[in-house]
């Protein structure tokens, strides 16, 4: 994959992104000029530039100028806030099974194989390539329980240039012998060693962070959760992720294990795991108390509509409109492989479908998501959930250039009525609803090309 | 696209299809041999043949032998029971709009353009190519109101080799002047001329049939519906299609126009439009009376989960399990472009998702669809809805060979854990949940190659 650009770069053409202002409206710019320095930081953003003025604005002796074709536009890279890297090759299996059954029958046997470093290397390499192909420039990954495999996932993200949170899964109970941490001490020690590994390979945290990853309370003894809470307190730079109120079967099992807590919010908060750095996957079942708690503690929600509507106990649409109304941070997750798709476009479409179900359920009160909102969730919303909103998520000056070049003409995936009639807004709407990875022809992270389709 | 094979053909390798026996279980055959004569009819089906015996069973001097690679398997072609050909280039637009609003704002202006034969030719040619690429070997198409354009759609299906029902839309009221039949007489006369056209170009009806297509009662005067009912009675070979109980907004408007009928079932039955040849799109809202009526009259249901969950008034899951339980014929429709996708794989996935919603709504009574059931709906179920079950839908001897060669290795769309570990059933499940058109490398209709991917 392309090496780091030594030169500053300039991009001229159509640009679409979500605004940071309340409401997160789309900004649709047919003729914008974005300048990016050699470190991959956006240095200027001219929003309406005539083609003939570009050469005056860009010094092409020092800067690489990339003129988008009329069939192309630039959008921010997608941010996948919930992704199980070891499940890459099991996508699509176990549809309709309840969550705990699906874990036992399909997932634990599959994840257990990551004890073999060569297997981990092979699957993770394929997985990262697959996610970059889908335009996922930032992913928050659950690894397996194995520190070697998890370190290898981090190494591969760095080598391939993907921005990522990488977490060793903590699992000290309620899973088979072949897929459980040897002890609570070992579990925490392995976490510390994975933290140290990432600090070694990416000392400034340019692309990588370790993410504390108690799988969920069912698989963690209380002392394990407490230990992770202490690590979180000692390391205020580290994000935290877990599954939260995902499915009835899971909530019931959690209550049986932790009868002293009235809710999962109280449980995880007690162990110091609910902070503004927390990424809570699913949040399908929410009480008013828990909404308030998440808001107060500034936790982020990783909404995973694909898996919510297939595995995990049938069909459940998370209260996405209410998260937005309450100002709770929310982004999208593919939840690949519980989610059958690794595409953030699919996640956006399913988020809209799930929100329509919620609109019907609430008798019209909780309005379905618009395309602009689904896109915000997949980009800037995800950045907020990951506390990366000052770094990525849209094209504000000072942010790093994580971007996708979309080309609607590629491979006949999308169809226009008339090339010169469909405006940029229409083309964008068609991309979100009917495009796929074939339309994502170039992927940048921090200014570097990390995936490119042969033209 | 490839010319008609003059020779008989034989196919050896993995074959998967639905059985015609009750329950429609999948038959998964790793080493089958299918023989197809020069007319495209399946003449024999050996279900377990050793590789070394193939040469003995197939006389390769007279027969073209096609050995599938280890990464390939053969399935029946997909049958799209509900598809609006003129909406091809508007897919994805108008998400979340209510049905009648979406018709006025997006669809009528778009369909009105098919008055221009050159425009129709261009979009229809692209549409048929697009649907063949998705493995749709049979489609039941709504055309626009224009007879020239509709005849051109039929011509193109025949030329490209797609099996199709092609219908001129009857619309005599409640649409703008620019998109309404000139009169009831003209509407019926145009229908007769379209019927005559297809009988001229495909006299034996090898691939094509005209389908009587009153868009829905809202757009048809009573005399128009009555006239179409009379044409249906005089032409017992012609299928009939309309929209049925799709959305609350549509049902309310229909009741206002036809207060004399208690239900859409009574309405359409009164005009002679409910027969075993009827393909009723959507059927989202069904009373016990209407279930009984559809069963009694042997009507077929075109279940269109993608559009039901996006356009048309929010989110509505049709009672798919109840149709199956009651033995009402049911197949899948992409409903492209109300449905944002032209992929029957997407339709299968969304049918499963919609059925999960129905399972929750019925408190577990109406179980969600299994993958095998979704696949049956997309193939043999669709054939039953179109009264084509003696011709296509699976690989029984005597049926015509409409088939897809699926290759899981293509383009890295699907991922296996270990090539030699994932059994054929697992590979099939992954194809249904994670594959796309790139995995459909060859498409046959009646033994003829109608689409082929460069290897």
From TrEMBL, chains A, B:
Belongs to the metallo-dependent hydrolases superfamily. ATZ/TRZ family. Its cofactor is Zn(2+). It comes from Sordaria macrospora (strain ATCC MYA-333 / DSM 997 / K(L3346) / K-hell). GO terms for molecular function: guanine deaminase activity; zinc ion binding. Its EC number is 3.5.4.3. This is Guanine deaminase. Keywords: Hydrolase, Metal-binding, Zinc. It is an enzyme of class 3 (hydrolase). GO terms for cellular component: cytosol.
């Amino acid at each position: 994959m392309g090496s780091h650009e030594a030169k500053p770069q300039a991009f001229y053409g159509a640009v679409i992104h979500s605004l940071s202002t309340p409401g997160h409206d789309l900004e649709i710019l047919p003729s914008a000029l974005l300048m990016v320095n050699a470190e991959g930081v956006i240095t200027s953003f001219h929003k309406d530039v005539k083609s003939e003025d570009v050469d005056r604005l860009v010094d092409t002796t020092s800067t690489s100028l990339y003129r988008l074709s009329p069939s192309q536009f630039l959008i921010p890279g997608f941010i996948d806030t919930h992704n199980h890297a070891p499940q890459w090759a099991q996508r699509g299996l176990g549809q309709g099974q309840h969550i705990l059954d699906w874990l036992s029958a399909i997932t634990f046997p599959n994840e257990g194989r990551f004890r073999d470093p060569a297997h981990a290397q092979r699957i993770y390499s394929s997985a990262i390539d697959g996610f970059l192909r889908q335009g996922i420039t930032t992913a928050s990954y659950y690894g397996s329980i194995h520190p070697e495999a998890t370190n290898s996932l981090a190494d591969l993200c760095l080598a391939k240039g993907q921005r990522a949170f990488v977490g060793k899964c903590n699992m000290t109970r309620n899973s088979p012998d072949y897929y459980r941490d040897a002890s609570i001490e070992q579990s925490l020690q392995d976490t510390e060693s994975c933290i140290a590994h990432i600090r070694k390979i990416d000392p400034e945290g340019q692309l990588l962070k370790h993410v504390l990853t108690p799988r969920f309370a069912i698989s963690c003894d209380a002392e394990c959760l407490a230990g992770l809470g202490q690590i979180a307190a000692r390391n205020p730079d580290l994000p935290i992720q877990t599954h939260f109120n995902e499915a009835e079967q899971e909530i019931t099992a959690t209550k049986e294990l932790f009868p002293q807590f009235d809710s999962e919010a109280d449980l995880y908060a007690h162990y110091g795991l609910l902070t503004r750095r927390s990424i809570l996957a699913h949040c399908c079942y929410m009480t008013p108390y828990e909404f308030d708690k998440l808001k107060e503690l500034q936790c982020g929600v990783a909404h995973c509509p694909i898996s919510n509507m297939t595995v995990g106990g049938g069909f459940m649409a998370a209260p996405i409109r209410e998260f937005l109304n309450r100002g709770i941070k929310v982004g999208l997750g593919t939840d690949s492989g519980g989610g059958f798709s690794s595409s953030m476009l699919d996640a956006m479409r399913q988020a809209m479908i799930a929100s329509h179900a919620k609109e019907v359920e609430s008798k019209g009160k909780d309005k379905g998501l618009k395309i602009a909102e689904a896109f915000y969730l997949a980009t800037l919303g995800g950045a907020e959930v990951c506390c990366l909103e000052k770094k990525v998520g849209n094209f504000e000056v000072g942010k790093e250039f994580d971007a996708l070049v979309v080309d609607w003409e590629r491979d006949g995936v999308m169809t226009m009525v008339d090339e010169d009639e469909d405006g940029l807004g229409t083309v964008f709407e068609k991309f979100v609803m009917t495009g796929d990875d074939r339309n994502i022809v170039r992927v940048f992270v921090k200014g570097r090309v990390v995936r490119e389709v042969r033209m």
